[in-house]
């Protein structure tokens, strides 16, 4: 018994009914199970022929081979499964010849063979975004699927998949991991399905299959850290909490957002994209948060420059909502900050994605030009949104005479990316780093005004 205690102490313990059930299903399917009973002076061991869970999952039916020894119904039975070397003990409910019934355990000892931490989540709490690889289908035509994430380590995924999509997750199927929950991967990671099976549970909203995926390369620890991080306030709410804008001014901004959005929804040229934004919002909160933060940052900068008015606020809100509209069909592209980022990841993008990113400024400007009621200067702001005074923007040209509002929008977008992607952002540090980039014309004036502002602008 002392040796048994030492063995069990080397295991982790789970009391999760769902995890116990999943282990029982996975374990007995692999075969090579055995049970034993321990007594003061000896131990009896029996090989298990079959292992079944009853429909109600209240007991386990075990058929075993006997070498002449008998099972003692008054003693506990211990069972070892090959899946993660799981061990559990159970109270014997009934014995008939070489068949016995054991109560489903309330806890189980198991070993973790993964080389990195395995994070587990309640069903439906986290999601994975997967793009299957299908023979004969061009890369640009493949859709990204949202599936429920059961668990994840650096080397593998446990997924819940619906019956309508399980044909894409058969054993040996090659997959691309595009993102985990709200964290998009700039470079997708390849993996292979190593097992799949039907689940005997009915509380997963139609996701009736379990799937195991082995990754070909490690999922970055930083990505796992983000998905396991406790819930945080949204970046836009954090900006509001910093009191960059007075409560009255913030209410004025919110009112202007509602008014501008109402106008935009009534314009046929824009309504389609705003509907797409609502769809994207349900799958990727980053896109709308990016817009919200950009609206606040633009307003903050315009106040620093004494350029604020109802007309300028409408322009910034209009531009914030439309600047990425051509990318709503490819939401992960919104996270690409600039051409340097694009060059780093472009080989991992589809031809359609590369074209969409490079043509987005011109396409967004075209939307504004199609809208006869668009505020003045907005089309120009959208066209120039990813340009830089040193000529390293999308169009690879030196724009030495970028208009004032377009220049402010470019700088505001840079600071917005800093707020959205740097967990410890600080405007002073950002300003120090970007001061040499935004020089000449209105850029110098904007950077000077930001340097003189007396508002502490950094993450608390």
What does this molecule look like?
The protein is of the alpha+beta class. It folds into 3 domains: 2-110, Roll (Pnp Oxidase, Chain A); 119-227, Beta Barrel (Thrombin, subunit H); 235-452, Hypothetical protein af1432 (Orthogonal Bundle), CATH 1.10.3210. The chain is built from 14 helices and 16 strands. A 7-stranded antiparallel β-sheet has the order 6-5-2-3-4-8-7. Strand 2 and strand 3 form a beta hairpin. Helix 5 (247-265) packs across helix 8 (310-322) and helix 7 (285-304) packs across helix 12 (404-421). It is elongated, with a radius of gyration of 29 Å. The two termini are 55 Å apart.
Fold blueprint:
Elements: H1 2-9, E1 12-14, H2 17-29, E2 34-38, E3 43-53, E4 59-64, E5 77-80, E6 87-90, E7 92-96, E8 99-103, E9 108-110, E10 119-120, E11 127-132, E12 145-153, E13 156-161, E14 174-180, E15 183-198, E16 209-215, H3 221-227, H4 235-241, H5 247-265, H6 268-283, H7 285-304, H8 310-322, H9 339-345, H10 351-370, H11 378-383, H12 404-421, H13 427-434, H14 441-452
Antiparallel strand pairs: 1-9, 2-3, 2-5, 3-4, 4-8, 5-6, 7-8, 10-12, 11-12, 11-14, 12-13, 13-16, 14-15, 15-16
Helix pairs in contact: 4-7, 5-8, 6-7, 7-8, 7-12, 12-14
Brief overview, please?
The protein is an alpha+beta fold and 460 residues long. It is 38% helix and 22% strand.
Task: Considering the chains and any ligands shown, give keywords for the structure.
alpha+beta; Pnp Oxidase, Chain A; Thrombin, subunit H; Hypothetical protein af1432; seven-stranded antiparallel β-sheet; elongated
């Amino acid at each position: 018994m002392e040796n048994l205690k030492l063995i069990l102490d080397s295991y982790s313990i789970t009391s999760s009914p769902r995890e116990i059930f999943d282990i029982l299903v996975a374990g007995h399917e692999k075969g090579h199970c055995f049970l034993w009973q321990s007594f003061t002076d000896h131990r009896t061991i029996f090989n298990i022929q079959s292992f079944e869970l009853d429909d109600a999952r209240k007991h386990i039916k075990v058929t075993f081979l006997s070498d002449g020894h008998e099972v003692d119904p008054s003693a506990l039975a211990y069972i070892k499964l090959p899946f993660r070397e799981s061990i559990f003990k159970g109270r014997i409910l009934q014995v008939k010849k070489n068949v016995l019934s054991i109560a489903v355990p309330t806890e189980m000892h198991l070993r973790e063979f993964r080389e990195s931490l395995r994070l587990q989540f309640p069903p439906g709490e986290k999601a994975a975004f997967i793009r299957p690889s299908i023979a004969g289908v061009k890369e640009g035509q493949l859709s990204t699927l949202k599936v429920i994430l059961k668990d994840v380590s650096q080397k593998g995924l446990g997924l819940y998949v619906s019956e309508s999509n399980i044909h894409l997750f058969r054993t040996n199927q090659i997959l691309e991991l595009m993102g985990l929950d709200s964290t998009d991967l700039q470079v997708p990671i390849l993996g292979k399905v190593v097992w799949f099976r039907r689940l005997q549970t009915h509380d997963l909203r139609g996701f009736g299959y379990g799937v195991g995926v082995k990754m070909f390369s490690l999922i970055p620890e930083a990505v796992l850290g983000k998905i396991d991080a406790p819930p945080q306030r949204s970046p836009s709410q954090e900006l509001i909490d910093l009191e960059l804008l007075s409560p009255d001014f913030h209410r004025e901004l919110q009112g202007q957002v509602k008014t501008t959005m109402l106008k935009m929804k009534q314009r046929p040229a824009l309504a389609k994209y705003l509907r797409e934004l609502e769809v994207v919002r349900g799958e990727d909160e980053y896109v709308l948060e990016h817009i919200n933060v950009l609206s606040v940052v633009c307003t903050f900068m315009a106040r620093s420059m004494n350029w604020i008015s109802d007309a300028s606020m409408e322009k910034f809100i209009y531009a914030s909502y439309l600047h990425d509209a051509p990318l709503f069909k490819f939401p992960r592209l919104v996270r690409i900050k600039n051409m340097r980022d694009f060059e780093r990841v472009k080989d991992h993008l589809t031809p359609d994605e590369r074209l969409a990113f490079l043509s987005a400024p011109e396409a967004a400007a075209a939307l504004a030009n199609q809208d006869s009621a668009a505020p003045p200067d907005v089309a120009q702001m959208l066209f120039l949104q990813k340009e830089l005074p040193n000529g390293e923007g999308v169009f690879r040209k030196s724009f030495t005479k970028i208009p004032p509002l377009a220049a402010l929008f470019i700088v505001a977008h840079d600071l917005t990316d800093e707020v959205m992607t740097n967990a410890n952002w600080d405007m002073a540090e950002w300003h120090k780093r970007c001061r040499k980039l935004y020089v000449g014309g209105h850029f110098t004036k904007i950077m000077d005004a930001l340097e003189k502002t007396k508002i502490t602008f950094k993450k608390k």
